Amino acid sequence: MRNPVxxxxxxxxxxxxxxxxxGGAGGGATxxxxxxxxxxxxxxxxxxxxxxxxxxxxxxxSDIYARKMQAVIDTLKLSPQPVTPVNKDGGSGxxxxxxxxxxxxxxxxxxxxxxxxxTTLIVQKLPFKGTDFTPIANxxxxxxxxxxxxxxPWKTAQDFITAAKADTLVVAGTGSxxxxxALFRRIQTIAGTKPFSYVPQSGGGTVAAALAGxxxxxxxxxxxxxxxxxxxxGTPRKLRPLCTFEPASPxxxxxxxxxxxxxxxxxxxxxxxxxxxxxxxxxxxxQQAFWVDxxxxxxxxxxxxxxxxxxxxxxxxxxxxxxxxxxNDYQKLHEDIxxxxxxxx
Amino acid sequence: MEFFNVFGxxxxxxxxxxxxxxxxxxxxxxxxxxxxxxxxGLGGTSAVAILLPITVIIARSSPTSAVILLAGxxxxxxxxxxxTSILFNIPGEPWSVVLLFDGFPLAKRKGKPxxxxxxxxxxxxxxxxxxxxxxTFFARALADFALSFGPPELFAVFIMSFATLIGLGAESxxxxxMMISFGLLLAAVGFDGITGxxxxxxGQIGILSGIGFVPVTIGLFGIGEILASAEESGIGFMERLSxxxxxxxxxxxxxxxxxxxxxxxxxxxxxxxxGILPGHGATAGSFLGYGLxxxxxxxxxxxxxGEISGIMAPQxxxxxxxxxxxxPMIALGVPGSPTSAVIMAGLFIWxxxxxxxxxxxxxxxxxxxxxSIYLGHLLTFIICLLxxxxxxxxxxxxxxxxxxxxxxxxxxxxxxxxxxxxxxxITIVFGLIGYWLRKMKYPLAPLVVAVVLxxxxxxxxxxxxxxxxxxxxxxxxxPIAATLMALAIILLLLPLIRTIRSRGRHTDAGIDxxxxxxxxx
Amino acid sequence: xxxxxxxxxxxxxxxxxxxxxxxxxxxxxxxTGTQPGxxxxxxxxxxxxxxxxxCAAVVAYRSxxxxxxxxxxxxxxxxxxxxKLVVPMVVATVAIKWFGFYIVSGLYMGLFARWIGRYNWLWxxxxxxxxxxxxxxxxxxxxxxxxxxxxxxxxxxxxx
Lengths: 345, 521, 160
Fold this sequence. Notes:
The complex is a heterotrimer.
Chain A: H1 3-24, H2 26-29, E1 50-54, H3 61-75, E2 83-87, H4 94-101, E3 109-113, H5 116-123, E4 134-143, E5 145-149, H6 157-166, E6 170-174, H7 179-191, E7 197-201, H8 204-212, E8 218-221, H9 225-233, E9 239-244, E10 272-279, H10 285-300, H11 302-310, E11 314-319, H12 320-340
Parallel strand pairs in A: 1-2, 1-3, 6-7, 6-8
Antiparallel strand pairs in A: 3-10, 4-10, 4-11, 5-9
Helix pairs in contact in A: 5-12
Chain B: H1 2-17, H2 20-38, H3 44-61, H4 63-88, H5 99-109, H6 113-147, H7 151-165, H8 173-188, E1 190-192, E2 197-199, H9 213-233, H10 248-259, H11 261-276, H12 281-296, H13 309-324, H14 326-332, H15 338-350, H16 356-361, H17 363-392, H18 399-418, H19 421-439, H20 445-467, H21 479-503, H22 509-520
Antiparallel strand pairs in B: 1-2
Helix pairs in contact in B: 1-17, 2-4, 2-17, 3-4, 3-15, 4-5, 4-6, 4-15, 4-17, 5-6, 5-13, 6-10, 6-11, 6-13, 6-14, 6-17, 7-12, 7-20, 7-21, 8-20, 8-22, 9-18, 9-19, 11-12, 11-13, 12-13, 18-19
Chain C: H1 2-22, H2 43-65, H3 75-115, H4 121-142, H5 151-154
């Protein structure tokens, strides 16, 4: 009885889709594929509906990015098969990795990855390695800022460091033994502060809320700009970034001109969350090239560019050897932290 | 001043929400929400997630229409989700778990599915209406206050929920304590978010996601009930239903609502407040609503056997909490529930930044949404009441069709949560366990409460201890936490004192010690 | 009733003992400062399991010393009724791995219609085909939710 309702909506939507695709998609869809990934291999498209696996719950950080990418793929009709987001959260990504790993050679399984692709694989005992998966591409880098409450007396990273040398500070971040904690442990090592009391939270939003509400004595976080923006923007302002862990200050947007942490004596400028795509192990060069091509087009679309700038991401498309190098560097960096702080059981 | 501005803003919001296209979106959203709410495994969260790609297109011309569609789905799913709880003993959403305790018994054992459904719809509507009024006037102030609820305060809230539910369905206190602890143990299985270590997984990666309460409750209640009733009445028996299924049930329920209106109002307010708290506030709120209704009731014995207060109180709290969960999303950019987290993801994808700026930069959007909450609930409520006779007659479907159908939707519900066959096996295994435990006279309600709330309770406790460097003093360190904890202890001791008084000198000291031990867990 | 009560309680004791063994490392409050907040991953499961174990022991002892009570099963009829439900349910669940949800659910509905309901074959056929078709329409087509597929899907023979 209710099906016709759904049917007519999907029809209406299909109409809309065609209209928009014809209207505004020209720029992105016609971009030439770059020579990367499988080199000159012919593109081999998947033959079954595609599962776009997400390692967080709906609404979580990488979930938003994956759904945005999926929306672009859908609108621009970049894949002959429907691409459906599938949430497989659990074990800081381990459940999602296992699921994709189990579909060896199947081009219908791709996943969005972040730094848990390194931390989780290093910290937990899992029967596979990061290199088992077929690398596709990195689309963007999500920077970290050092945040304090608006009423905090600290004005620069140096103030924060001085305080952290005197007392054990309570800080919050997403998850345990993942990127946020990794960054705090690096600060601890580089600046020689007392060990932070790190309170793991379930997501970026709750981390920002903990800081804004003075919850459980939390005095600092390393939220991404998109996570802290809401509580920074309103009146009265609740959060304040001290500095960014990027090599240069952001040039545009609400955080334009924010000092770099390096300039304030906290020399970390090479740490981001990657927003990258990996595929099931053992794809052929042609299958790999297909996905590299799809995500290159996503990355070039006006829609994605707008999204990237709205959320203060750094656009950073890499595939092939370039992507591989980044993966290797991050692997090394996280292995060192894990070793230093006894994360491996 | 600001108070009067609100009326002007709200009028503007209604003007937006009443535009024909927005009304159409609301209707479509509500209908879709009702369908996915009734379908197992597809709660509001997944339905909203599934619709996100479509809203991207709508949002290009009008983000307000897009958010009205998604919010419509949310309300529809809230109302629809209770249907499977009441008719099949299968929970749709975390906060409809508590409806298993009285909703299903009223529908089946007392043969009044129409009254059970109508009770939940009436309570939902009253709770949601109250909540929306509070949302309209106090959203920003409340959201700011909610920010100060950190791990110690939340821990006290969870302890309060447990405290009101002590002794639930317990003939033997020892067994009740045992079931609570067993539930806490099950909740601990899987990946430990605080240390990043696997617990009780025995090397199985699939179990890292933990033993979810949805497969467990579907098994214990849905499947377990089918097996238990097959043994009592023999396979192929027919349900005995009240002779007529019609709108008389609705009229009857209206009378029941009038008797309990203050209960519904007060649990609605509590629920709204819980919804504002980020995290699993709504679930805790629904349990606390149930627990308070039971403690305040003169008819304690009737709870668990189909008491109408046991449906209305938690349902009013749950729906008010759902409305409340939009408050921190809109006002702070912090989601209050899983479904509002996905709606918030939608905002990001459409290019809006949720948070205080919305009120100034996207004035029409916020007030259009608020107005659509009023309209959406009214619409959902009317549709649901009209559907009561139809839904109630589902229980007249012959056994040979209904029983395998319930098993199938249990399987779908368990599977589609995480696309995991492991969850299906967990459901079946807990179905057998549930059947057996019923037979051995173990209470199942405490087990379910512990499985649902165990995770959050442990997490907030440990987060608090990390922040204080291991000093438990932090649990009563802030005025709010201390007050809540004191309330929890009073709630805990009340029934104990009553029991001791009524039992007089015959009190079994050993039993009371067990009951106290529960609080410490 | 008595032997079953005792056996159930002992089973709980066994499960609790396994859990306690598995999480024994974190049983005590950590004073060395290696665990965040002084409580390790094992603390909570260990003590939950401990309470289960203790309570189960009390229940086992009480049932053992207590009266026999009513018989656990009310005649063979009841047991057979339960088994008639359990066996097809377990078989169907396991079969989903190979035959997928749709084939299994059709056969499962058909089995009940014929065996328990004693419907005529037309109705049986209708349920066998209609139920999975309706679910396929709602889930795979309507909401793009994927349910488990059969080996024939992997081979590319069937769409489900």
